[in-house]
Amino acid sequence: MTESPLFWPATLKGKTLFVLNETLIPKRLAYVKVRNTREAVNCIREMKTRAFGQFLVVLNTFLVELKNHPKATDQQLVSLIEKTAAALNKSRPTFPFAEVTSVVVGWAKQALSQKQPVRSIVERNTQGYLMGIRAKRLERVANIAKVIADGDSVLTHCNVSGELAMAAALCAQEKKRVQFFCTETRPYLQGAKLTAWELKRVGADVTLIADNAVGNVMARGLVNKVIVGSDRSCANGDFANKIGTYQIAVLAKEFGLPFYVLLQPSKKIKSGKDIPVEIRPADELLKFEGKKFINGNINGFYPGFDVIPHKYVTQQIAIDVRG
Predict the structure, then answer these.
(1) What whole-number distance in Å separates Cα of residue 301 and Cα of residue 56?
(2) Same domain as 299, residue 237
(3) Domain-located, residue 21
(4) For residue 104, what are the domain limits?
(5) CB 312, CB 249: distance < 8 Å
(6) N or C end of the chain: which has fewer CB within 10 A?
(7) Domain for residue 3, yes or no?
(8) Same domain (yes/no): 158, 195
(9) 146 and 86 in one domain?
């Protein structure tokens, strides 16, 4: 299967992590260099890469820091890993990075308590963890393709990087005729710049619509299924995803359309009301490519995520990234 560049958008080479700069797509493919925790945090906060890419940045940052401190003692490495985890956990409040960083910290502390080499244990476990996640993601691609039938017209809004495009390619191999409708996904236009782009790269039939055209498209009967991604999930099945997802879920319920969510199950948060929703800087809404396009002193309100109650979800297509 040919992979989308967004499927695995971060690669460690030597002491440097190369992260696909998703803000430059589709103009060009370029990579951000991450050489320490500070650069990793900046990469995450500046949205150079999306949810799964940020997850890869988090895990690989531990490997980068281990390489940056070749002579550190085991005790020093544990302290370094704890400090790195704390910085990464604060980078974006809505994302459950702590669920992953706590695993790495746990490996380091256990190795120290058992008088095992912290460096080799953390490196080996982290690399194995990443390989396991890669296999699970490939499995989910196949599961996405299974819920897409011949003749389907799928609406998507901020899906999981790479997976939907690869599922579309599988559908094509199976001779399924499938059409995709992508929301533009304001204000970053991720749907226009990323989702539509990667679907088109695999030869899929793609139509771009404005975010506020979802109800119109459903009323016209142009779509019969919705597939979205997620950034955080709850024990009761509620989840958070890119702003705009909630209204799509409500409309799908109104029109009787099945609503699928790609997520990572978690028991850390009981329900959606407990999810901390990140309020992004107003300039991200009021400016485009660094230039203000609204006249006058106007306020901007940009919650980065919606929280969607589980009653709107037809089926979860899940992978457990916790190992």
Answers:
(1) 29
(2) yes
(3) yes
(4) 10-136
(5) yes
(6) C
(7) no
(8) yes
(9) no
Instruction: Tell me the C-alpha distance between 316 and 300, whole Å.
Output: 33
Looking at residue 323, its pLDDT comes to: 45
CA pseudo-torsion sign 154, 158, 160, 163: positive
pLDDT at 94 (0 to 100)? 79
CB 258 within 8 A of CB 226: yes
Q: How many residues does the chain have?
A: 323
Contact 248, 157 (CB under 8 A): yes
CA-closest candidate to residue 86, choices 40, 49, 120, 133:
40
Q: 37-48, pLDDT tens digit by residue?
A: 999 999 999 999
* Rounded-to-integer distance, Cα 243 and Cα 306, Å: 5
Q: Given a cut of 90, is residue 168 above it in pLDDT?
A: yes
List the one residue out of 38, 97, 39, 36 whose CA is nearest residue 67.
Answer: 36
Same domain, 214 and 177: yes
Catalytic residues: 231
